Structure formats: structure tokens, C-alpha cells
Amino acid sequence: MINYTERLSALMSDIVERVPALSFQDMARVLVFARAGRADTEGPYATCHCVCLPPSEPGYYYWRDRATGELTRRSEWFVTKSPVVRIGTTPIDYMVSFALPRFCDQRRVSARKRAHYTGHPDWMSKLDTIVHELYHIDPARPGIRRIERADGTYSANCHGPTFFEDVVEMVNQYLATDPDSELFDFLKYDFAGLTSSYDEAIPPQVAIFRSAHLLACRQVEPELQSGDSLGSYLRHLLVKDPAS
Fold first, then answer.
1. Are strands 46-50 and 147-148 parallel, antiparallel or unpaired?
2. Where are the alpha helices (DSSP H) in the chain?
3. pLDDT, tens digit, 9 for 90 and up, residues 72-109
């Protein structure tokens, strides 16, 4: 039997201890969980969710007429809040979700990973994904790491021009510290290999939630019902991020 998310958490804890650029992270406040993701479909292997942002400034929805641009109606004022997540009494700041079995079955399919990990085994792609998600955590403020442009402003894109190269460097830094191979041996197996090697590899030790569960969506207070059920004329959500 293998507890896959427990293995991922242990590996991530070892990574942040050995890689200086990630050493600021407190893995006690990072929840690792699994969600369903078929290997034969497109989609992310993993995602980092922030649940520690402060409440937003008050904002509202508004609708405009498509032809005239005239403001036709608007919602009540509201704020958005991060959901409160705790494990026992420990507050959780970030949740990292892994899509299974897609994550287990990934290969060096992208040109980027083929270029960076030529001559290395396929499981290095999984280690790259793990470091990638850890690197998304911002060291200076609550939230996902901001990417600074050349002019000093911040981009809305969470992957800057050197982001992927930084991840590769940290993967190599980690392996250069000679970590215990038992911590990452499980990455060498695809889903079928896990099942044959550990018998019941996934259930019941790893919970795979439906896509609507445990995703770190901002909560709206109060909850609003749009007058336009299709949202056809929804144009903009006026919410200022107080952390920006």
C-alpha cells in the first residue's frame, strides 16, 4: 500500500530544506491533495492554490448594453475572501493539487522538458512538476509568485521568461545534494506500475476529489444571484487586490 500524497508531501518537505530559493516555505502550512485527471486528456499535472489572501476591497458586477455601451444594471457591493482551511489547529496557506493518474503517467512530452532533461529518465518530468508548483509560492507576500517585467511592473502571467529555467536549476540543485532515493523512488512508476508494485496503490489511501471539491476559489460575501442567468452581458468584476 502506498499513500501517494503522503509521499509527495515528504518529498516536497525535503526539497524545500535542500534548495535555498525554496527554503522560506513552511510545509506544515501547505496541503497536498489529489484530484481526478485522466492521462488520456489534456490538462495540468498539478496546480498551486493560494488560500491566504486577505479580503478584497469592496467591488461589484455591472452589465452594459452591447449596442450602446450603456450601463444597464449592477450588483450589490461585495467582497471576496479566501476559504479558511485548517488541518487540526494548523492553518493552511497553500494547497497543491495533483491530477491522478495524469501526473503519474506523464512523460517528457513537451519540447521544453525534452530539451532540459535529455538523457535523463522520464520520472524527472514529475520532479520538475513538483518543484514548479513549489516555485509558484511567493516569498515576499501572500499569493502566487509575481513575475516582474523589465520596466519594474508586474505581469499577469505567472510564468516569466526565466521561470522554467529556474525550475530546472532547482531540480538539479536538489539532486546534487544527494537526497535519499527512497524519497523519490515512487516517481519512477506510472499508474499501472504503482498498482502492480504496491497492490492497491491509490484507494483508499489517496482521496481523489471531484473537480468542484477543494479548489481554492475566492468566496463571495454576500452570495449574489445574477439577474442574467447566462451572464451574457457580464463585462467586468471591479475588485481591487489589496496585496497588489
1. unpaired
2. 4-18, 111-116, 124-135, 163-176, 191-198
3. 998 888 888 888 889 889 999 999 999 999 999 887 56
Q: Which residues contact 226 (CB under 8 A, 6 or more apart)?
A: 61, 75, 234
Three-state secondary structure call for residue 47: strand
Q: Which amino acid is at 85?
A: V
Q: State pTM to two decimals.
A: 0.76
Question: Euclidean distance between the first and final Cα of the chain, in Å?
Answer: 45
Question: What is the distance between the alpha carbons of residues 232 and 201, in angstroms, rounded to a whole number?
Answer: 45
CB half-sphere exposure, 201, CA atoms < 13 A = 18
Residue 51 lies in a domain: yes
Number of compact structural domains in the chain:
1
The C-alpha cell at 1 is 500500500
Q: Between the CA of residue 162 and those of 20, 80, 127, 154, 166, what are the distances in Å?
A: 17, 32, 18, 14, 6
Q: Within a domain: residue 234?
A: no
- Alpha-carbon span 203 to 185, nearest angstrom: 20
For residue 167, the enclosing domain spans 4-57+79-221
Pick the closest to residue 59 from 224, 182, 190, 204 (CA basis).
224
Q: Which three cell numbers stand for residue 225?
A: 444571484
Q: Is residue 241 part of a domain?
A: no
Q: How far apart are CA 231 and CA 237, in angstroms?
A: 12
71 falls within a domain: no
